[in-house]
Amino acid sequence: MSGATILYKPLGMAFGMLGGAVAGAVFRRTWKAVAGEDDAPDAHDEERSWNEILVAAALQGAIFAVVKAAVDRGGAVGVRRLTGRWPG
User: Fold this and answer.
1) Residue 13's CB: how many other CB atoms inside 10 A?
2) Per its UniProt record, what InterPro entries does this chain match (predicted)?
3) 11 — pLDDT class (breaks 50, 70, 90)
4) 54 to each of 17, 32, 78, how far by Cα in Å?
5) pLDDT per residue over 23-51, tens digit each?
6) Is residue 79 over pLDDT 90?
7) What gap in Å lies between CA 72 and CA 15, rounded to an integer?
8) Chain centre distance of CA 77
9) Integer Rg of the chain from CA
10) Model's pTM, two decimal places?
């Protein structure tokens, strides 16, 4: 295992947690802007329609995927700048 990979593992975990928090905040703000509501529907919310629940889930998934990709890529680029090697 290279030094770049060893360095990337703990940083990747820390940035992953931070990315999750950022993605959650972005989703909440996006949902409020899109639906005009503070709380997104939960799958067990009996008073919400299938459509509303599935749209919220798709939006949340897309936001989390984009933030995760950005955090992962940014971490890899940062490790390469520090070590001169791409982690992997």
Assistant:
1) 11
2) DUF4235
3) confident
4) 25, 16, 36
5) 999 999 999 999 999 999 999 999 999 99
6) no
7) 8
8) 18
9) 17
10) 0.83
Question: Nearest Cα to 70, choosing from 20, 30, 33, 3?
Answer: 20
Instruction: Calculate the CA dihedral of residues 67, 70, 72, 78 and round it to 10 degrees.
Output: -140
Tokens in use for 64?
């989390």
Alpha-carbon distance of 45 to 63, in angstroms, equals 22
Burial class (CB in 10 A: 0-12, 13-18, 19+), 21: exposed
Measured in residues, the chain has a length of: 88
Give the residue ranges of DSSP H helices in 1-88. Answer: 3-35, 50-83
